[in-house]
């Protein structure tokens, strides 16, 4: 998917919501566990209830790998379901990969070619040659961790290196990498106060912003400094939407939670016009 197609969808749906598909079988409703493939059944119901409200879906790969071969199969069925029935949505494999060049190429093939995701999350720690193999794929997007939502972000990311915070160096340096147009960045919603600085370095890039809902990040705070001319934000909520109810009505309640966020986004978009 091209960035323009993503931006068009944002305006069409009046939403920049990303629904996180982090399926934990200890949290899904009991009746779903009785189906043959509970992870896929759960995802299918969540997607059916939210696809008109969300522009992106982000399965976190850990939640599938944890169930071995069966989990991987459920992931494959989920992405096929999205690509077949809702080809307009932007799909994110949240895998946080990155390794020496030839290994990164294989990770990129796995997520972009075999599973046909639009994007994958990567960690910048191993540097340029670990990320450029992902950037080589046309109309695919590589979403690099910049300033994460967790407490551990302060262990390394905000430390001063040569007079600049490390996360700012990550942003600035990566702008010169080959095919840098295919880069997006992760900034946690819990770090909204950093967004003005971040936008001064990467004014035009898309940001994946997890951390609203369960982690306490605030949508309005993120938009205040994070939004740009092409909106440039994908705001993710996982647990706040998919586990809002563990009853028979879980999909309906997930739809309501998604709608609450979408309505706030529509208001923000209307004010931008
Ligand atoms: O890359 C991510 O998506 C990510 C980065 C980050 O800084 N913080 C963060 O929470 N995430 C992911 O975003 C999702 C957040 O889930 P909830 O807190 O349940 O909305 C999880 O899949 C996390 O792994």
Automatic annotation (TrEMBL):
Keywords: Decarboxylase, Lyase, Pyrimidine biosynthesis. Pathway: Pyrimidine metabolism; UMP biosynthesis via de novo pathway; UMP from orotate: step 2/2. InterPro entries: Aldolase_TIM (IPR013785), OMPdecase_type-2 (IPR011995), OMPdeCOase_dom (IPR001754), RibuloseP-bd_barrel (IPR011060). It catalyses: orotidine 5'-phosphate + H(+) = UMP + CO2. It is an enzyme of class 4 (lyase). Residues 16-253 form the Orotidine 5'-phosphate decarboxylase domain. GO terms for molecular function: orotidine-5'-phosphate decarboxylase activity. The keyword Lyase applies. One of its GO terms (biological process) is 'de novo' pyrimidine nucleobase biosynthetic process. Belongs to the OMP decarboxylase family. Type 2 subfamily. PANTHER family: OROTIDINE 5'-PHOSPHATE DECARBOXYLASE. This is Orotidine 5'-phosphate decarboxylase. The gene is pyrF.
């Amino acid at each position: 998917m091209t960035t323009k197609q993503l931006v068009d969808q944002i305006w069409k749906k009046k939403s920049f919501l990303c629904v996180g598909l982090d399926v934990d079988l200890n949290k899904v409703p009991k009746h779903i566990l009785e189906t043959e493939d509970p992870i896929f059944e759960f995802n299918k119901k969540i997607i059916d209830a939210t696809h008109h409200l969300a522009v992106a879906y982000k399965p976190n790969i850990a939640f599938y790998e944890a169930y071995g071969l069966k989990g991987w199969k459920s992931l494959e069925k989920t992405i096929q379901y999205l690509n077949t029935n809702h080809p307009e949505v932007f799909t994110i494999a949240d895998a946080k990969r990155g390794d020496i060049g030839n290994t990164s190429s294989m990770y990129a093939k796995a997520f972009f070619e075999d599973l046909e995701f639009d994007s994958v999350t990567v960690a910048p720690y191993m540097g340029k040659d670990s990320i450029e193999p992902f950037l080589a794929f046309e109309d695919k997007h590589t979403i690099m961790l910049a300033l994460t939502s967790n407490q551990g972000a302060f262990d390394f990311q905000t430390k001063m290196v040569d007079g600049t915070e490390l996360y700012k160096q990550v942003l600035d340096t990566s702008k010169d990498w080959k095919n840098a147009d295919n880069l997006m960045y992760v900034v946690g919603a819990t770090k909204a106060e950093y967004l003005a600085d971040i936008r001064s370095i990467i004014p035009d890039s898309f940001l994946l912003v997890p951390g609203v809902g369960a982690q306490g990040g605030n949508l309005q705070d993120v938009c205040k400094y994070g939004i740009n001319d092409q909106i440039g934000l994908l705001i993710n909520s996982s647990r706040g939407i998919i586990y809002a109810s563990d009853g028979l009505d879980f999909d309906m309640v997930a739809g309501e939670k998604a709608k609450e966020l979408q309505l706030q986004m529509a208001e923000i978009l209307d004010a931008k016009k």
